[in-house]
């Protein structure tokens, strides 16, 4: 028999929802509306005077060649971070799901990095990859690779991708491990009895049953790479060298906060919001078709 929750007061459900609705209105819809309004304004650096200029900020933005370079860098960076963090997290989750001694301790250690702030993660990787002091950088130099992210844009982008992906691996690991533990062991055992080897069992049984979790994490990781990596980039490279690691979210900050172009920065934030919403919609429209529930 189906059980349904009943409320003695008809206004109680709305009262329970009110705090969340209020938070959403104040911290999402209100800033978004302000950014849209500001993108049509030309303001001075102090915000004391403003003029309505229609779409001039957008026109100037799309005429700027450096904006397209930043757009390309953002897509490369986001795709690399999402792929690397998801693949490594899945590998670690499969290994941690095995019946081994001390598995609980391993799982706990793998979760810890998620508690590290993005800026702290950036500092940790700077110490490892610094061309003068970093242990990893010295090892690369001993192998004949002249590692220098201060001057080489490819090296700088690589280290930012590594730091950002490392920060997100623990989050992905939690969900992948939960998804693996939810798969009935009887299904895996039946495939093993039928002669399917471990690799075939993973591709034909485990991975399809993990598709809902993978799809959710794909959406979350794309949003993370577009927005939440600002602290890591600001700590490690400040968008350099020569804007090689400047993503859209960092360009919003550098042009608005440092450059004083408040209207142009607002226009960039609106475009960034549209891109993320569009990517999420595309994923739900096309990628979700391959998800097996």
Structural descriptors:
about 290 residues; mainly alpha; MetI-like fold; two-stranded antiparallel sheet; 2 strands; about 70% helix; about 0% strand; transport; transmembrane
Brief account:
By secondary structure, this protein is mainly alpha-helical. It is built from 13 helices and two strands, in the order αββαααααααααααα. The protein has one domain: MetI-like (MetI-like fold).
Can you walk through the features of this model?
By secondary structure, the chain is mainly alpha-helical. It has one domain (65-292): MetI-like (MetI-like fold), CATH 1.10.3720.10. Helices cover 71% and strands 2% of the residues. The protein contains 13 helices and two strands, in the order αββαααααααααααα. The protein has helices at residues 12-38, 56-62, 65-96, 103-111, 118-129, 135-142, 153-182, 185-193, 198-209, 211-228, 230-236, 248-258, 262-286; strands spanning 41-43, 50-52. The chain has a two-stranded antiparallel sheet with strand order 1-2. A hairpin with a 6-residue loop joins β1 (41-43) and β2. The longest helix has 32 residues, at 65-96. It is globular. The two termini are 25 Å apart. Residues 71-283 form the ABC transmembrane type-1 domain. It is a multi-pass membrane protein.
